[in-house]
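Changelog-adjacent note: as of this version, every example in the card shows the full chain rather than a window. The one below runs 216 residues end to end.
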Amino acid sequence: MTARPPQPSSTPQPTPTPLPSSTSTPLPTGTPDLGTLVYADDFSKDSGWVTEDNDSWSMGYTNGGYEIHVNISNAPIWSVRNQEFSDVRLEVDAVQTSGPENGYYGLVCRHLSGDNYYALVIGSDGFFGIGLVENGDKIRWLQEGIAPAGLFQPGEGAFRIRADCVDNILSLYANGQKLAEVLDDTFDAGDTGLLAATRKESGVAVLFSNYDIYIP
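Full-length structure tokens:
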């Protein structure tokens, strides 16, 4: 497994803008058939993911899951499995356990390096986005918005996040609801994993569990 060292940006990331359709006409829910399960990890024991603790970030097994804690601002911190996939569907349970609500967290696909990958994420404040990191630049949102009212309820526990990276179609789901879908062919294969990130405020901690990889 590999993890990204922090590379905070000096330019704050933009405040999310609600999509016109996100509060009125939800996208269709996903189908139950995810494909063939090729990897499953409930993080109940050490399964080879990176464990590290420093002044800027930490990650490791705790409280029956795998936690990423980001202690610096404007920084996405990831941890990935070194197993390359082209077309893939990912699912994980995730809950933010501390920090500002404007942080975000979720799944990574087609990860070539710390400078090149896709991120499909949600935030406790209702934010969602499909982002691209290319050539080490700060994350660029291919699509972002605010989830339909009531989908993300503070304090309700973990959200089930799903990311589909199939052909040139990237799709993001939360709790069975499709939130976003974009076409992009920048990357066609790479590693998969987890991500937690901060904006202007630091201190975001996210606990992940029940991470599944499917081949569609």
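Structural remarks: The domain at 21-149+159-215 is CATH 2.60.120.560 (Jelly Rolls).
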